[in-house]
TrEMBL record:
It comes from the Bacteria. It comes from Liquorilactobacillus hordei DSM 19519. Residues 256-302 form the DUF4357 domain. This is Methionine sulfoxide reductase A.
Amino acid sequence: MKISGIVGEGRRQMTRGKTIQLYLMDGTPKGRIKCTLANWTGVAYKIPRTGLEQAKKIKALKQTGVYFLFSTSDETQENIVYIGQAGVRKNGEGILYRLQEHKRNPNKDYWTEAVAFTTSNNTFGSTEISYLENKYTKMAIEGKRYIVKNSNEPNLGNVTEEKESELEEFISYTKLVIGALGYNIFEPVITKVTPVNIRLLVDDEPILTLTITPHKGQKIIAKGKQTSEGFVVFKGSKLKTQVEKSASKATLKNRELAKHKYDENFILLEDILFTSPSAAASFVTGSSVNGRKEWKDIYGKSINQLEKEE
């Protein structure tokens, strides 16, 4: 089964769309998937851990390439990734052999899905995959969406200026493909903005504020914004110290999972993404509240009011 789609590369800049083809090798989105992009020599394969045996028939996986092992933490529910490279061995096996080694390794038994990148013309050598592994690892760490399990920083390798330009283009296509496969590993929770618009807008969405003054307590001020994925509460936001009895189980769980993301003064140390404005507002206030009413822009308009004006 083949699925084609057009992906845009940004809202602010005028860019041409890209045609991505997803081939469902097992006829189901939960099975093996081959992903290609028009006018790109790269090719990606998404393989469930349970599908490695069937993947033996994929010739491209005997080549040199770079791979990602994905999972979710049982304790914190945070996303996990390990990034590695695979060269062709004397036995003629490349990427697939490394994935099979990881499956047998008890120290890497956490992963449930793998995404592998190689080329349709088998042009990757050791220099190319070292460079890509290094760059992908740094990008994943900077994105702060996944816990990166790599214990050591991969060697960047020595590449020529021409080769670096070629590989950076490969990386730009990789970001589109891996995003289309469902992994926002390289995308920051919010896009950086210029000082001119930081008080008002981020990605064309207004910056919103939630303010409460607890009884005999310090004023709570949190800032955030809506995104296509939910609602982001910004780093530096203040949380209410006490959690109310009215707080839902989800709010209690979010506070517990994020306890390492705020300091002793209950100030957020990083941006946090929530599924909705209400989930974000409840996390900040430690109670059950309607975020669509509580988050407001600089003019005092709530999300509900802003949407009525659209």
